[in-house]
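Schema walk-through. Below, the input block comes first and the output block second. Nothing else is stored per chain. Lengths vary across the set, and this one has 84 residues.
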Amino acid sequence: MSTERPHQTSPALPLQPAQPELELLTASQIGARLNLPETWIREMTRGRATDPIPHARFGKYVRFAWGSRDLAEWINRHLNKGRQ
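--- output ---
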């Protein structure tokens, strides 16, 4: 008498929709990519900024989601201000 169980497969996991690759950047890194000073980037994360750059706070650390829709829209808003 065998006590072996027949091979069971686990249920297939549902497919996740593809998400764009997000990269978390520091103020220095995003400043370099946008060719802007790190001090200006940091200033745009403060509460007194009229149109703050989208960011996330992790305690004392601030990160920016490169590739996110919010950041792309923010950049486009600022690019288009010069064309009006």
